[in-house]
Design brief:
This protein is an alpha+beta fold and 189 residues long. Helix content is 43%, strand content 21%. It has helices at residues 31-41, 86-101, 108-116, 126-150, 156-171, 174-178; strands at 9-18, 21-29, 45-52, 56-60, 76-83. 1% of the residues are buried.
Length: 189
């Protein structure tokens, strides 16, 4: 399965309940590698156990599951997929648990901060960006006028470059102009 979206994948291992709170371990997974691993390590399905209010029944794994109530069986509650070889499933689960035992503990608070972007350099707010753009747009005609006034005193090649630049500046939209950076001449050296 290919996707361009960043998928955050985790394995969750429940270890108990402490003071009324569920506790456990959370393992970050490389989604693409884990997807391939699951395909390779999966066990063959056997039957599907359908659980009703009054009774349970079994059907082939590839048959469609309907959640319809049945007068004899009662209300449909849920279903459980059963492996063709229960021992193979137990081996696969044991191998998965063993593969997590060597992983080092992490700091969940630091992980959440990383995901939320805390600690990164903040971008200016949209309002601040708009204010800066407005300043740039307002300053641009003054800079262009100063450059045009200086044209007669420039060498021919530089004069031609300045004229081409001034012509390009006149054609820019306000949005394009707002994105330009104007540096004072003394900063150019």
């Amino acid at each position: 399965m290919k996707t361009r979206d960043k998928i955050l994948a985790y394995a969750v291992e429940l270890t108990g309940i402490e003071k009324g709170r569920v506790t456990g371990n959370l393992y970050e997974l490389d989604y693409q590698k884990h997807y391939e691993h699951v395909k390779d390590a999966s066990v063959t399905p056997g039957a599907t156990k359908l659980i009703y209010e009054n009774v349970e029944r079994t059907q082939e794994a590839d048959r469609r599951i309907t959640e319809d109530a049945d007068p004899d069986l009662g209300k449909f509650l849920n279903f459980e997929e059963q492996p063709k070889d229960p021992a193979a499933l137990q081996n696969a689960l044991r191998d998965e648990k063993h593969s997590r035992e060597h992983l080092k503990s992490g700091d969940i608070k630091a992980h959440i901060e990383t995901l939320s972007g805390k600690g990164k350099e903040k971008k200016p707010s949209l309002r601040a960006q708009l204010a800066q753009g407005k300043k740039t747009v307002n300053a641009a005609p003054k800079k262009q006028a100063a450059m045009t006034a200086a044209l007669p005193y420039m060498e021919t090649e530089i004069q031609e470059l300045a004229e081409r630049t001034a012509a390009k500046l006149k054609k820019l939209t306000e949005e394009e102009l707002a994105g330009l950076v104007f540096l004072p001449a003394e900063d150019m050296e």
